Amino acid sequence: IIALHSCEELSDDAYDVLGWVANAIALGIDRSWARQELVSRREALLLQLASQIRNSLDLNTVLNAAVEGNRSLLKVDRCLFAWYRSGDRDEINYTDGSTRGMMLELVSEAYGETLMPLPRPMNSNAIGAFVEELTADNVHNLLRASDVTTLEEPLRSLFEQQGYTSVLAMPLVGQGGQLGVIQCGDCLKMRTWTDSDIDLLRAVTEQLAIAIQQSALYSRAREAAQEAEQKAQELETTLEELQTTQTHLIQTEKMSSLGQLVAGVAHEINNPTTFIHGNLTYARNYTKDLLALLEVYQQSYPEPTEDIAGFLGEIDIGFIAEDLP
What we know:
Blueprint: H1 12-55, H2 59-74, E1 78-86, E2 102-111, E3 122-123, H3 127-134, E4 143-145, H4 155-161, E5 166-173, E6 179-186, H5 195-300, H6 306-315, H7 317-323
Helix pairs in contact: 1-2, 1-5, 2-5
């Protein structure tokens, strides 16, 4: 309600002005509410996207969620994330004759139904100029073009080949120093990028940088855990081998002791056996001599005394003479 108080009757022109002011205020209020609703909706979607990013530790899942969510937030035809790679010509499979050793490794991409995916990897002589533009020492640290035909070469040809009419790109630096690029654009219409669009893309980029760092830390933690588990397994295997070796050593020591015992017993048996074996020849000769002496006595004295004859019969001298040798 707008109230005007006057001591005189208002003219028709005053009524017209009052009506125009009321309509203008109503229109401004509607626009403000619409803008607030849009900001609230974007903030809600951004929070939802941040939650999705932070709830996942898998880098591919994080990048896919960021690209899909960013395309939904900005209402663009295409959104992508790529890592910048540089190297020797022999290390890169070029398709356009590029000789600068630079490429964008496309990791995740979201696009409209009428569009086709971009080639992977994206090789072009203009990649170097694109990265230099993104990383230039300026306040905004981004590339913004509402009409790609206004860009200078070779950037103009680069984005025209990719099918863009308007493009907005922002760099992202990973924890290891690797350079990433998040790029959005329209292909079917021109678009004027607002400060709100840039703030939104920057917010997504910041969330994505945190998620990439978090994913890298998680990957390193998993690698460390796997390495520790592998070392524990190796230690367990080594312990089992040591226990087996210890058992073998104990058995070997037992066998060695038993061998020494058997050798000692054999030595103790060998001494008297050798003694006996060494005197068998003498015993045989002595026995023959004594029996021969007895035979000479029998021949020399064929008639023994009664006591001798009785003793010879008692001991059965014939059996002894036959059995003793």
